[in-house]
From TrEMBL:
<dbReference type="Pfam" id="PF03446">
    <property type="entry name" value="NAD_binding_2"/>
</dbReference>
<keyword id="KW-0520">NAD</keyword>
<dbReference type="InterPro" id="IPR008927">
    <property type="entry name" value="6-PGluconate_DH-like_C_sf"/>
</dbReference>
<dbReference type="Pfam" id="PF14833">
    <property type="entry name" value="NAD_binding_11"/>
</dbReference>
<dbReference type="InterPro" id="IPR015815">
    <property type="entry name" value="HIBADH-related"/>
</dbReference>
<feature type="domain" description="6-phosphogluconate dehydrogenase NADP-binding">
    <location>
        <begin position="2"/>
        <end position="159"/>
    </location>
</feature>
<protein>
    <submittedName>
        <fullName>NAD(P)-dependent oxidoreductase</fullName>
        <ecNumber>1.1.-.-</ecNumber>
    </submittedName>
</protein>
<feature type="domain" description="3-hydroxyisobutyrate dehydrogenase-like NAD-binding">
    <location>
        <begin position="162"/>
        <end position="282"/>
    </location>
</feature>
<dbReference type="InterPro" id="IPR036291">
    <property type="entry name" value="NAD(P)-bd_dom_sf"/>
</dbReference>
<keyword id="KW-0560">Oxidoreductase</keyword>
<dbReference type="GO" id="GO:0016491">
    <property type="term" value="F:oxidoreductase activity"/>
</dbReference>
<dbReference type="InterPro" id="IPR006115">
    <property type="entry name" value="6PGDH_NADP-bd"/>
</dbReference>
<dbReference type="InterPro" id="IPR013328">
    <property type="entry name" value="6PGD_dom2"/>
</dbReference>
<dbReference type="InterPro" id="IPR029154">
    <property type="entry name" value="HIBADH-like_NADP-bd"/>
</dbReference>
Length: 303
């Protein structure tokens, strides 16, 4: 199976290297020369967008639906150059409406489509332990299963084209909500004199636990590292997509709108370039809790 990975950022680059180590014939492409050079230095064959070769699978890892559309439609895009029967797999977190539109064009052109948004961050991409939400035809899924198995620890087929992106937006909405809610719970406990780490241990032994309390807080917040590899700007984009999807479907989801507003209330805290876990910082600061100091103090101590 010959695979071309398009988009060599932290996620796409690590996925490409993981597939190469697994024995696949992998090349990579990115519009930015620096990204191509970084991966080439790690042993991956890379080319510019104009030189993408014929492949069995085109694995997309791009920031937005607009970028996905550009790669597929803008001449010479994949609709022009991909061989008949090849598969386009979109691992980006994309707008489901756009995904379904593009999937229809891809299939009409004699190609196959699979949306496969991922979770697990750059670390999961690097060690082949991603989670994948899959939308597309089951026959297409089975065809690329060896590749998916090399990339991921868990794969969930949730329906036809676009379904993977729908569930991914729902997942990110819950994650964004849990970050705010857990931060408020920890701030409440801290203001009342309870150590935040002790509070989290208690939450994780009860029904209030979530992946945010069990993973995000100890891994990226309590540690002061804030280096998950996923930015606040990307989470804000995903929340807007979730809100727009709900509105288009005629759903009155009041909490979703409140969460979107909360994430957009202050463009500086956090900035779009900050790690998305920083959304908790102004909430915790109300209780005098600042885990970013721990990172600074650790650096000063080690120096």
């Amino acid at each position: 199976m010959k695979i071309t990975v398009i988009g060599l950022g932290q996620m796409g680059g690590n996925m490409a290297l993981t597939l190469k180590r697994a024995g696949f014939d992998v090349s990579g492409s990115d519009r930015f020369e620096a990204a191509r050079e970084r991966l080439a230095a790690q042993g991956l064959a890379t080319v510019g967008p104009e030189a993408i070769a014929a492949s069995d699978v085109y694995l997309l890892s791009l920031p937005t639906s607009d970028h996905v559309r550009e790669v597929i439609e803008t001449s010479p895009g994949l609709l022009d150059r991909a061989p008949m029967g090849s598969v386009i797999v979109d691992t980006s977190t994309s707008d489901p409406v756009v995904s379904r539109e593009l999937a229809a064009k891809v299939i009409a052109a004699g190609l196959e489509w699979l949306d496969a948004p991922v979770s697990g961050g750059p670390k999961g991409a690097a060690n082949g332990k991603l989670g994948m939400l899959l939308g597309g035809d089951m026959a297409t899924l089975e065809r690329v299963m060896p590749m998916l198995e090399a990339m991921s620890a868990k794969r969930t087929h949730v329906g036809g084209p676009g379904s993977g992106h729908v569930v991914k937006l729902a997942n990110n909405y819950l994650c964004a909500t849990n970050l705010i809610a857990t931060a408020e719970a920890v701030a409440l406990a801290a203001k009342a004199g309870v150590d935040p780490a002790a509070c989290l241990s208690g939450l994780n032994s009860g029904s209030g636990r979530s992946a945010v309390s069990e993973v995000n807080f100890p891994e990226w917040i309590l540690s002061g590292r804030f280096d998950s590899g996923f930015t606040s700007g990307l989470m804000r984009k995903d929340l807007r997509l979730a809100r727009d999807a709900a509105d288009d479907l005629g759903l009155d989801l009041a909490l979703l709108h409140q969460v979107v507003a909360g994430w957009h209330a202050n463009a500086e805290r956090p900035t779009d370039g900050d790690d998305f876990n920083h959304i908790v910082s102004p909430i915790l600061a109300q209780a005098g809790v600042d885990f970013t100091r721990r990172s600074t103090n650790d650096e000063e101590t080690s120096a």
